[in-house]
């Protein structure tokens, strides 16, 4: 078997007396599309934070392609190939769309330490940024201020930023939250079109989107994994129906 892209073993996270993540273990294969679902407060985002380094786990380990990253900071994990988006839009609203992408490119480039050269001094970065905007359907917005983008367009920009860190594993935290039905379908098509060599972990509340994109689904409830399997298995499980709808 190939080495897991992400391996989580006996991971727990406590906040005082509250155990937000409780002994979670999971393994995600290279190139897999894994979706995490569960009711509000199940611990999905906290689990993401612990895997990506935003939070340090209380106990347990996290490995990426066989490398233990449990005690590494978020920046170091990004250097090793983790990329992510967040629930709340996280872009520079006072800059143009393309300048946001250029800054993401510079973030992993040694030239980021050269403070006396303007961004326009790197035409190849602008070209790469333009390619990214083409990928997410925003080439016509390149020179607009981010403040003028719709919420859905900001989500598209965030995907371009995450991809430009060169991730091997991409974490998407509720990418379709707050989008209209048509925007959700558009964004889901963009996610489905991502290259299959990229491993994807996604939190998503829209069950239709989640189950359509997933190779495997992990269901969290009260910080614990209650079931894991292919979309059909999860959808037909009585415990999942109980958690979501209050009946089997």
Automatic annotation (TrEMBL):
Pfam families to which the protein is assigned, alphabetical: ABC_tran
GO biological process: D-alanine transmembrane transport; L-alanine transport; L-isoleucine import across plasma membrane; L-valine import across plasma membrane
Every ABC transporter domain range: 6-247
MF (Gene Ontology): ATP binding; ATP hydrolysis activity; L-isoleucine transmembrane transporter activity; L-phenylalanine transmembrane transporter activity; L-valine transmembrane transporter activity
GO cellular component, one term: plasma membrane
Keywords: ATP-binding, Cell inner membrane, Cell membrane, Membrane, Nucleotide-binding, Transport
Gene3D superfamilies per record: P-loop containing nucleotide triphosphate hydrolases
Protein name: ABC transporter ATP-binding protein
């Amino acid at each position: 078997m190939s080495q897991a892209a992400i391996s989580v073993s006996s991971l727990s996270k406590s906040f005082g007396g509250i155990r937000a993540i409780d002994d979670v273990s999971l393994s995600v294969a290279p190139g897999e599309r894994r979706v995490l679902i569960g009711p509000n407060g199940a611990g999905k985002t906290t689990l993401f934070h612990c895997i990506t380094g935003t939070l340090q786990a209380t106990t347990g380990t996290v490995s990426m392609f066989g490398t233990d990253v449990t005690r590494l900071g978020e920046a170091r994990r990004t250097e090793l190939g983790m990329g992510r988006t967040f629930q709340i839009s996280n872009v520079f609203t006072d800059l143009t769309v393309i300048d946001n992408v250029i800054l993401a490119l510079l973030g992993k480039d040694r030239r980021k330490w050269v403070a006396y050269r303007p961004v326009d001094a790197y035409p190849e970065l602008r070209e790469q940024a333009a390619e990214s905007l083409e990928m997410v359907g925003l080439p016509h917005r390149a020179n607009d201020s981010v403040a003028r983008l719709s919420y859905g367009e900001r989500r598209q920009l965030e995907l371009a930023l995450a991809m430009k860190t060169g991730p091997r594993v991409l974490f998407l935290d509720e990418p379709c939250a707050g989008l209209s039905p048509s925007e959700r379908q558009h964004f889901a098509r963009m996610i489905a079109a991502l290259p299959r060599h990229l491993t994807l972990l996604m939190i998503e509340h829209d069950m239709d989107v989640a189950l359509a994109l997933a190779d495997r689904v992990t269901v969290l409830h009260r910080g614990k994994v209650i079931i894991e399997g292919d979309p059909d298995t999860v959808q037909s499980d009585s415990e999942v129906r109980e958690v979501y709808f209050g009946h089997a």
